[in-house]
Amino acid sequence: MITLRPNQKEPISKAIYFFGEKSTKPSLIVLPTAWGKSILTAFTAKETNDKLLVLQPSKELLEQNYKKYISLCGDFDVNAGIYSASFGKKEINKVTYATIGSIKNFGKLFKQLGFKKMLIDEAHLYPREADSMLGTFLADSEITHVLGITATPIKLQQNTDLNGNRFSKLVMLTSKSKKGNFFKDIIHVGQVQEMVEMGFWSKLEYNAAGFDASMLVYNSSKSEYTDESVQMAFNANNIHNKIKQQLEYHSDRRHILVFVPSVNEAIELSRQYPSSAAIYGEMDKTERERIICDFRKGNTRVIFNVRVLSTGFDYTGIDCIILGISTASIALYYQIIGRATRIDQNKKDALIIDLAGNVARFGRVEDIVFQKDTIWRMFGTGGKLLSGIPIHDIGKVTKEDVARVETSAKQNLKLLEIMPFGKHKGELIKEIPAAYKRWMLEKFEWTKANENLRQSILEQMNNEK
């Protein structure tokens, strides 16, 4: 049994408490890259008395989480099972690790077997609409307790402005949309800075070169730059040659990932640079695995890749990442940088070389924080607001701007004296039991429409202190 780190105990306790409550609403725990989400999954599964379904988005993560559970909890043939067609097993046990594609049509079976609780790893990856695979399974199984785990509790939302023009914005998974919000609250946030301060993240050194972004063009939904414009900006900024120069200049770096905009670019660079290889989505899987194996062993120093290794590649020895692509996606940026954050005894730090304007756009990953006032929001370096605004406006709105708007809104609110609905409808708010008011603040789904009630309750509770 491992010894838990100080920042691991609290979220694990909250997850166990969540599954022990009689009534819950779908909630999230936010944990940074390299926190050890499979550890939370294992400890929670071990301590949950009821049957538990643990959902993963891929065979690879399923295997990782399952092995972590077995190594920490034992009882190989007693407690744990795997239900995944891609894994070649269909076992249902007290703790069942599954992929949604394999169980989507078996919700009624899991209901009959008494499953009421589900833990979802990488929760941001799942469509949550009623007609999705997850939505169908939840409706058929009548699961009552759903807890998601993610490092990036955000989703892409498409909108239309008053002139009919489409645009996109990143919103928190807890934010309301036209299709509603499946996850209602975040019960714990592990901030990235905690990992840094406690020494659980590799130190990151940033080296951002000048970049002319004038050629970058948003796609039709304004959610990302077009592939064509990213390639044009790559060419116009001479990034091909700059990559080779950086590789030569930083000859002390031994395990380097380089992100480039096209397969042709990756192949050409790998031909020009010794001890390197190219990886891309269409290549043979056996060849890809051979390249990754050589990279881990140190036989290959550099991998030029086309967005293939931005997620799910957790080799701790990566000591340098070169960004040769521009992205408008904070989620992709976070995932790319995350490949270098893991601690390794053979590296003192990790160098992030940005040749394509990403650090200027989003800031340092270590500065990302999730905070809640009236709603949950995501902020970056210098207080940049990274969620809830059009993607093309990122960098233009700060935490101070948000505070001014909210202060103005609060000042214009008409506070209430009488409870307008519910168990205590018609009663003076100041006379309603404090426990009930605390319950409302914690459990009620607050929106702009009832913000005046929330502020009224808060003011009354402050007066009672």
What can you see in these coordinates?
By secondary structure, the chain is of the alpha/beta class. The chain has 16 helices and 18 strands. The protein has helices spanning 6-20, 37-47, 59-73, 100-103, 107-112, 133-141, 192-197, 227-236, 239-249, 263-272, 285-297, 330-338, 358-362, 399-411, 434-443, 451-464, and strands at residues 27-30, 52-56, 80-84, 89-90, 95-99, 117-121, 145-150, 154-160, 166-172, 185-189, 204-208, 256-259, 276-279, 302-305, 320-323, 350-354, 369-372, 376-379. The strands form four sheets. An eight-stranded mixed β-sheet has the order 4-3-5-2-6-7-1-10. Strand 15, helix 12 (330-338) and strand 16 (350-354) form a beta-alpha-beta unit. The longest helix has 15 residues, at 6-20. The mean pLDDT is 87.
